[in-house]
Amino acid sequence: MKKLIYPLLTLSILFTIGCDDDKKEESVDSIIGTWTLSAVCGFEDENCSGTCTDVTAMWLEDEGSFSMTFSSDGTGTLGDNEESFNWSGSGPYTLTADGESITINLSGNSITWNIEDDVCIQFTLTK
Fold first, then answer.
1. pTM for this model (two decimals)
2. 86 contacts 97 by C-beta, under 8 angstroms
3. What whole-number distance in Å separates Cα of residue 72 and Cα of residue 76?
4. Mean pLDDT per segment of 10 residues, for the chain of length 127 residues?
5. Do the beta carbons of residue 39 and residue 124 sit within 8 Å?
6. Which of 8, 33, 73, 119 is 20 to 30 A off residue 88, Cα-Cα?
């Protein structure tokens, strides 16, 4: 019986280690997956410097929430209407849609990007 238990125990340990490696490949630091709006920050100037004012509640009331899905093939979809975009890079990332590009930064389990015009709005999405 001991001759059977040791090989089975060894195989189960190897299987467990193999499964852990698969989980590490799609870690928290992977942009692949679906991200949902979690915060919107407004700055007083177009350089995104100074004090951030939390405008999440106002944004959600006026515009609603949205999500983005990044696929491993360099494509993605935005929101329920599934507008498509392309993305590239390994941090920061470049998202391109309708001929326009934005830079997306990944940090842990959140992504951020800024829209700079007369003011700066920073969007944060989480997995």
1. 0.70
2. yes
3. 9
4. 42 46 49 94 84 93 92 91 89 90 88 81 90
5. yes
6. 119
